[in-house]
């Protein structure tokens, strides 16, 4: 499967919402093509280099499909789009096109079935509810309710202020329970750092 890539300083998770401003010609063309064909593009996190200009030197080999749900002309004249995370994928091979757009051969990752929330998830469910009240989070209109462990893990991994490297690692974990455990470990580390 061939997928155009959009390297960003962000990690997108399935079911999560991301607002983007598009101003580079290569991405305006890409978005136009995606919308005409009703297809998505791939968001990968930049590990070396910058978002603007040339292709970044390094980017994560795991990413998330982005599906355009809304678009509008911004006050500053730029195109604003809202995407929702679709399927996770692994980059098999990537090539830079003439217009500097990255095109990748990707392998889709298996999404495990949604498992019901457990008693031990209650603290994390409460944390998600608290995050939902934050104005920046509320503006995303993600409809923050965890339908199960997978959606809880995706939303927390996306919204919590973890380092990009940690988020990439979380995106790689297939099992929702394992991902929730990893999120709890990162939260414990953050708390430890605050108390230190």
TrEMBL record:
This is Lon N-terminal domain-containing protein. Residues 1-191 form the Lon N-terminal domain. InterPro entries: Lon_prtase_N, Lon_prtase_N_sf, PUA-like_sf. Pfam families: LON_substr_bdg. It comes from the Bacteria. PROSITE patterns: LON_N (PS51787).
């Amino acid at each position: 499967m061939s997928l155009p890539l959009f390297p960003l300083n962000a990690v997108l998770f399935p079911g999560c919402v991301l607002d983007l401003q598009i101003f580079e010609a290569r991405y305006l063309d890409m978005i136009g093509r995606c919308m005409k064909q009703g297809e998505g593009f791939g968001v990968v996190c930049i590990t070396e280099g910058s978002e603007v200009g040339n292709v970044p030197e390094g980017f994560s080999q795991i990413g998330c499909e982005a599906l355009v749900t809304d678009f509008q002309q911004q006050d500053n004249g730029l195109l604003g789009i809202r995407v929702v995370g679709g399927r996770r994928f692994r980059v098999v091979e990537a090539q830079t096109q003439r217009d500097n757009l990255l095109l990748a051969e990707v392998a889709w990752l298996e999404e495990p079935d949604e498992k019901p929330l457990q008693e031990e998830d209650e603290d994390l469910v409460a944390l998600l509810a608290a995050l939902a009240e934050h104005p920046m989070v509320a503006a995303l209109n993600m409809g923050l309710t965890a339908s199960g462990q997978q959606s809880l893990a995706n939303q927390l991994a996306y919204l919590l202020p973890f380092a990009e490297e940690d988020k990439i690692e979380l995106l790689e974990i297939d099992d929702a329970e394992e991902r929730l455990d990893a999120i709890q470990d990162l939260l414990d580390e953050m708390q430890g750092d605050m108390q230190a």
